[in-house]
Amino acid sequence: MSSEDIKNKLTEKGLKVTPQRMAILEAIYNLKNHPTAENIIDYIKKMHPNIATGTVYKVLGALVDNRLVKKVKTENDIMRYDGVMKSHHHLYCMESDVIKDYVDEELDELLQNYFEKKNLPGFKIEDIVLQVKGTFNK
Amino acid sequence: MSSEDIKNKLTEKGLKVTPQRMAILEAIYNLKNHPTAENIIDYIKKMHPNIATGTVYKVLGALVDNRLVKKVKTENDIMRYDGVMKSHHHLYCMESDVIKDYVDEELDELLQNYFEKKNLPGFKIEDIVLQVKGTFNK
DNA sequence: TTCCTAAAAGAGAATAATTCTCATTTAGAT
DNA sequence: ATCTAAATGAGAATTATTCTCTTTTAGGAA
């Protein structure tokens, strides 16, 4: 991803091309694995020591609004608390045909919560089973 | 869930039975749908106007530590940002045998993120497909 | 039942991530 | 080159949560 490419992405969306926006997009493309705002700020300050943190948040918001970047909620809102839950999933080994049950109540909570907020239009969910495909370490 | 039942749950775990803990557990059992700490605080203050918010957080922590309550991370840590993603899932209608593709990049991010943190021991994940079972509205 | 003590609660300051406010600067259209 | 709406900077404000420290209390022991 060259500077030209990044600049074009901004221009295509009708966003003014500023050094701050260039730096932030570049940081996101270079920092793999879903960087936090803090990761991005730290990264950018190496080259732009004077950028305001408020600016980073504002730019990130603009990038998300314009679908140049996705906001990932590794937990969306605020902590919540609950008492119960159940269900199980499957780990499929692609090398050996082994299928292993996988119980993870935290994941179930996460999914239930996600779909409660998502509210799939026209579909009433009864159960969710994950097919997790991969390989068991030998 | 009676007061006695709630009291027993605390006692079984070796936790002192306090009015605050009783009230918080009762709030969690009555407030469906994963209440937030704020929901719980609001609910409890109807009956216990003087409870300290710090106490609520402390009690919730103790309840989670003692597995009386689960902490659900509708988003775990801090906002993160990314650029790409893909994959698709299936909606299975239990009444009609219809199977519909379901694309949801936000969900994929969520799952990828979840398992990156979870790190299933002995298993290397290649792909995750959700089987979402339910019914299409007629 | 009363006493004792570790544990719990209260009050509010502290912290951390994020948002807001408003004065100043700047990208880019004219 | 000029102009102006948009963007940035600086730091205060906000929000959820944690921490600190003093006071109170649950519940076991005398």
How does the SSE layout of this entry go?
The structure is a homodimer of 138-residue chains.
Chain A: H1 3-12, H2 19-30, H3 37-47, H4 53-65, E1 70-72, E2 80-82, E3 89-93, E4 99-102, H5 105-118, E5 123-136
Parallel strand pairs in A: 3-5
Antiparallel strand pairs in A: 3-4
The first copy, chain A, binds a DNA duplex (30 and 30 nucleotides) through helix 4.
* CATH class membership of the largest domain in chain A: Mainly Alpha
Helix content of chain A: 40-55%
Give a count of the beta strands of chain A, DSSP E runs of length 2 or more.
Answer: 5
Distance between the termini of chain A: 37 Å
Determine the strand fraction of chain A and express it as a percent band.
15-25%
Oligomer: homodimer
Protein chains sharing the most extensive interface: A-B, 63 and 62 residues
**How do the strands of the widest beta sheet of chain A line up side by side?**
4-3-5
CATH topology value of the largest domain in chain A:
Arc Repressor Mutant, subunit A
H/E element order of chain A: HHHHEEEEHE
Total domain modules of chain A: 2
How many DSSP H or I helices of chain A? 5
pLDDT average of chain A, as an integer?
A: 76
- Shape, per Cα inertia axes of chain A: elongated
